[in-house]
Specification:
Number of helices of chain B: 0
Oligomer: heterodimer
Largest interface: A-B, 26 and 26 residues
Helix content of chain A: under 10%
Distance between the termini of chain B: 36 Å
Structural class of chain B: mainly beta
Helix content of chain B: under 10%
Radius of gyration of chain B: 13 Å
Radius of gyration of chain A: 14 Å
Shape of chain B: globular
Number of strands of chain A: 11
Shape of chain A: globular
Order of helices and strands of chain A: EEEEEEEEEEE
Largest sheet of chain A: 6 strands, mixed
Chain lengths: 114, 114
Amino acid sequence: QKEVEQNSGPLSVPEGAIASLNCTYSDRGSQSFFWYRQYSGKSPELIMFIYSNGDKEDGRFTAQLNKASQYVSLLIRDSQPSDSATYLCAVRSSGYSSASKIIFGSGTRLSIRP
Amino acid sequence: EAQVTQNPRYLITVTGKKLTVTCSQNMNHEYMSWYRQDPGLGLRQIYYSMNVEVTDKGDVPEGYKVSRKEKRNFPLILESPSPNQTSLYFCASSLRQTSTDTQYFGPGTRLTVL
């Protein structure tokens, strides 16, 4: 079982709709969760991070975390063509040690169709 | 401007010819890391450094070396490159490696080993 799993997609969503991206993780000790957006051939760009159970909203983006289910999601409202990219889920375990590192999922490719 | 820079951005080389990819950050970050990204495999950590003169292996360190003599620089060295090291490489940095720290990525280096 991969440590951080995402559906590779592609996920096709009509413009203006809500895109829902999901991620599950295996380490129950994980404390912080990140969503990165990556355009083809470019570097990952941080969109949101979340540490506590529940929802966190930032503009059109909402991150949702459920630690009991080991599940984190990203909702993109009013999807725009510019949202077409690969979205990487990243998970970090707790503590300040060499064991605390970020594990990335392999990403979900999102395509917004006009 | 706060940033992580990498050089070169593109490199085509031949098997066995030693090369170095430089990484530099101007944010006074303690933690730096190298990743490689391959289709379907996501971002995999090669090496990381918690601070000057402190480095450790990530998930895929074979065939790579690093050094951290200065806080701002973290070069990646391929002593004898092989075709399976053809990949997209990213350097990243964060202030430290606590659960609340986020990583910032360089623009990437696309390496082809013939």
